[in-house]
């Protein structure tokens, strides 16, 4: 007989408000331990010194995590003008100091306008990207710098929330693959004074918002009440795909789809991915509408 898997079969998504000073992986392991969960993963790492939204996917939710990785993200960021650092944030060593007296709100407005829309961005050396199998941040710590190719990213929103020299606060909504530290650094260069990130918080990811986040303290308090209180903190697996059209199947269609067959659904949406539910409203997984109108299974939960 095989060994029984250790832990509870937890299903759902927890919107963790990741504390500062903790790696995303450490936060994941702590939450997994509290829930005594068999299977869990996180989507979209945050730097240790960045806080905010870190979705933790339990059980079947790990199958939809890729769709969250591709989703747009929102950040609140405090930028310190006049100082550049090795890591483009407050953790790095100071590289250069420049005056900021000439920076006005009008100049700031012009600078920010240059970064809205589709732009090219060179990933920082202090990042988790790999070069010949090595993480860039490891190479950077060894004093090695390698050439990085520019990437096309999109800044959908870039709002100035507050400006009191030498600090400015921004709200950013951006595409996946955007480095806020690089954005801050590039804004500083356009202003001619340099800059780094003083504080960073992720406030949104895909369909999720800051108001839905759960702190580590709240999770620990729920754990003292028992598994029912813990599981009440979870969102459904399908919450990650809430913006997709849904298809409800008959019992027969659900059976055949579960066998890997495409099924005909009257009045199905046209083209693209869909959320699939059984007659009782239970989420079954991800399907795709074929050219002939049938629904094919793509990722069943």
From TrEMBL:
Keywords annotated in UniProt: Isomerase, tRNA processing
Keyword tRNA processing included in the entry's annotation: yes
GO molecular function annotations of the record: RNA binding; tRNA pseudouridine(55) synthase activity
Residue stretches making up the Pseudouridine synthase II N-terminal domain: 32-180
Native source organism of the sequence: Candidatus Sedimenticola endophacoides
InterPro entries: PsdUridine_synth_cat_dom_sf (IPR020103), PsdUridine_synth_N (IPR002501), PUA-like_sf (IPR015947), PUA_sf (IPR036974), tRNA_psdUridine_synth_TruB (IPR014780), tRNA_sdUridine_synth_fam1_C (IPR015240), TruB_C (IPR032819)
Transmembrane annotation, as ranges: none
Active site annotation, chain numbering: 47
Reactions the enzyme catalyzes: uridine(55) in tRNA = pseudouridine(55) in tRNA
Family that this chain belongs to: Belongs to the pseudouridine synthase TruB family. Type 1 subfamily.
Domain of life (superkingdom): Bacteria
Gene Ontology BP term (one): tRNA pseudouridine synthesis
Ranges of residues in domain tRNA pseudouridylate synthase B C-terminal: 181-241
EC numbers: 5.4.99.25
Domain tRNA pseudouridine synthase II TruB subfamily 1 C-terminal per the UniProt entry, residue ranges: 245-301
CDD domains: PseudoU_synth_EcTruB (cd02573), PUA_TruB_bacterial (cd21152)
Record function comment: Responsible for synthesis of pseudouridine from uracil-55 in the psi GC loop of transfer RNAs.
Name assigned to this protein: tRNA pseudouridine synthase B
